[in-house]
Write a structure and sequence with these properties.
The protein has 2 domains: about 1-75, no CATH class; about 80-180, Metalloproteases ("zincins"), catalytic domain (Zincin-like), CATH 3.30.2010. It is about 40% helix and about 25% strand. It has 6 helices and 8 strands, in the order βββββαααβββααα. The strands form 2 sheets. A 5-stranded mixed β-sheet has the order 1-2-3-5-4, covered by helices on one side. It has a 3-stranded mixed β-sheet with strand order 6-8-7. The two termini are about 25 Å apart.
């Protein structure tokens, strides 16, 4: 268990075991009543009030992990489902990907496409996103199989995606939330 102190926050990391992910518990003097939790890649991060006892923290972490894991399982789209959606005729036209999968190593972009191999990789930060958002992201990457750049021809094709503007707004909000979560107050 590693501890580090930063301002008014103490962080404790509990190593992963078996089916449980690595857990980071951040106890903050700025928090009075509420606790929050989220997955950051494969790490489960819990923010709790610093005044809680060790047993209260453990109880809260266990409950939040159970709830988040259950919710995450019901929201997740699998790689196979994502690939099937990418093959739907309404989305691809003539573009055919070799694979469409979620990856954990994309922290600064939502997705990427390798035109040479036909691989499309979607950031796992979008696993719980609404299907229409995933569809727009996949369509964008499929368009790169036809046009390698962001030329007018590319945008002419990509702009046909249903609810494209809504998805862009959703992704802007998610990016803002990601930045806000990483800020130290």
């Amino acid at each position: 268990m590693a501890k580090r102190r930063s301002g008014r926050t103490t962080s404790t990391v509990i190593p992963a075991t078996g089916d449980r992910p690595e857990i980071e518990v951040r106890a903050s003097t700025a928090r009075v009543k509420s606790a929050t939790a989220r997955f950051e890649g494969n790490r489960f991060v819990v923010l709790v009030p610093a005044h809680l006892s060790v047993s209260e923290r453990e109880e809260m972490v266990t409950a939040l992990l159970r709830r988040a894991t259950k919710r995450r399982a019901t929201l997740h789209t699998s790689d196979a489902e994502l690939f099937e959606r990418a093959l739907a005729p309404a989305y691809v036209g003539t573009a055919r990907p070799q694979s469409v999968r979620f990856v954990a190593n994309q922290r600064t972009r939502w997705a990427s496409c390798s035109a040479g191999s036909g691989e499309i990789r979607i950031s796992d930060r979008l696993r719980g996103a609404p299907q229409w958002v995933l569809d727009v992201v996949v369509i964008h990457e499929l368009c790169h199989l036809v046009h390698l750049d962001h030329s007018p021809a590319f945008h002419s094709l990509a702009d046909r995606a249903p609810r494209k503007r809504d998805a862009e707004m959703f992704l802007l909000g998610l990016a803002f939330a990601d930045r806000a979560d990483s800020m130290d107050y």
